[in-house]
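Backbone shapes recur. Consider a single case.
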Amino acid sequence: MRSILKKLAPEASTVSFTERLRSGLGAIFGILVTGILAEAVVGHESTIPALVAPMGASAVLLFAVPSSPLAQPWPVIGGNLVAALTGVTIGVLIPNLFVASAVAIGVSIALMMALRCLHPPSGAIALTAVLGGPAIRDLGYCYVLWPVTGNTIILLLLALLYNNLTGRPYPHSLKHSPTDRKTADPPVVERVGFTAEDLDEVLKEYDEVIDIDRDDLAEILHRTELRAFGRKVGTTLCRDVMSRDVVAVSPEASLKHALELLQIHHIKALPVTNDRAQVIGIVTQTDILDKASWKNGLPTIGFRQRLRLSMKRGQAPSGIVRDIMTAPVRTVSPQATISEAIIRLAEEGLHYLPVTAEHDKLVGIISQSDVMMAMLAEKAA
């Protein structure tokens, strides 16, 4: 009996209370505002429905699982549009409601899969077109424009606004993407373990719709491999191998001064700290090469970077470190193991990690070569 119950109610992934609260509040916001705006469009006394029930199912995807491939803008808009057109057409051609309902759902699914816009709530859109009663049937193809398309666009725009304002990128994108080196080599995390071709072959063997983006699945698996690897090696702590006499730079320092520090000390990265020694960014040789222009042999802020910064900040850049530094910056604690540092370096495609203590205060810096030497020392011990 326990085995049967487990199959009926599979264990869900762990989600924080904050995430559950954000999802619930998002759905309240989305449906409430969609209803208010929809009623304003059709009028309080109108016989045309202001809001249709399938929007509730769309809200579940848009606000609770916005990373799902089924919740992205094209599936939401395309799926609802295809299903509405199909439902109305089948409802006109087939008089029997049950037969029409079944055909409308089946054809909608086939079309959505062919057009790569599968959206589960769209099934209810098609069913509503057939079973919605006289108020819906009398609309004919106007049902496609309103309430379906109107409701869909309003709810989707609200999801775009809410998710991005509350810290969830939507449309969905990977949270962590390694630095693009502009070469044919894949990121380092993809050179360990399985390949993209391996994953594609396994997915072909399953031959079914899996409700997770293929790139998301690959990232999850790669990060799991890295953590499994880290559990077996690298027990030395970062504080044991980090550089403690760290050369840092102020965000208000000139680009010329930053370049001089890199050259004098023969280093490739400078943590950027405020007057309380808190790390607020990092500036590297790559930042100077990519984000600065050169005039008379010295780095300066070029027109394109100046325009971008002016639009972002509302004020012109001053040719200082703050204008080109990478922020926020990934850091690691002194108590972290070098295996944790390896994972962070690999996932982000970084070469250096500032080591910070309480209140983000800079206490050291660790590099790829530091962790490699520590691993060699562990092997030799």
Strands lie at 269-273, 279-284, 293-295, 298-300, 352-356, 362-367. The chain has a mean pLDDT of 86. The longest strand covers residues 279-284.
